[in-house]
Give the backbone structure.
Amino acid sequence: MNNFLKNTSIGIKVSLAPVLAIVCLILVTAWGAVGLRGIHADVDAIGRGSVERIAQAQQMATELTELHQLLYQSMTWESIGQRPERIKELDAQLLEKLAAYDRKAADLAKTAGLDALGSQALDAFAKGVNSYHKVAVDTLDFKTAGVANAAAYVVSLDHDYRKNKELIAGFVASVRQDVGARVDLAGAKVTRQISATLGVTVLATLLCAGLAWLLARAITQPLSQAETD
């Protein structure tokens, strides 16, 4: 290294230090950019995926409440003697909505990227909705023979309704717990990235300072010797 510096012209020696500083700056910037890109991807996945899942779960809870209210509306109409054609129309719409909701719950249970707790909650919810669907269909069938005949199914219907609402709430809680864990991991990754960037920056600074000292020495030594001679 010393021989190289001794045999190099003063112009090259003077330009080496800033060139190396620029190269180190570029390397540190690139290192930080790559790390930030990875952190951004993690945070984006947390935000988009988790918010979407929570929104879907809340929408499912709202639709379940609407279905339950329609079931009670159908039984109320039957008890007050509403026109049969209107009751038949309402029941047909209700059966169609129940089947669609059952399919939606089954599709939701296939959501990818969930942790074990979230997957278990959705599987249990899909099974609970299927049970609710069957009890609701039986309730509507027996209702046509008299509201009193359908009353025996109301207890089971209300039980399945409350259970499914609890399962949805449990799923939302599991998603929030998963978000918290992933945010902690992202925070730890940020800390490691900051530490690594600071380490690389210090190393680059020391390297530039060392080279600057060598270059200054390589320039001043020949001049000192020339003055002595």
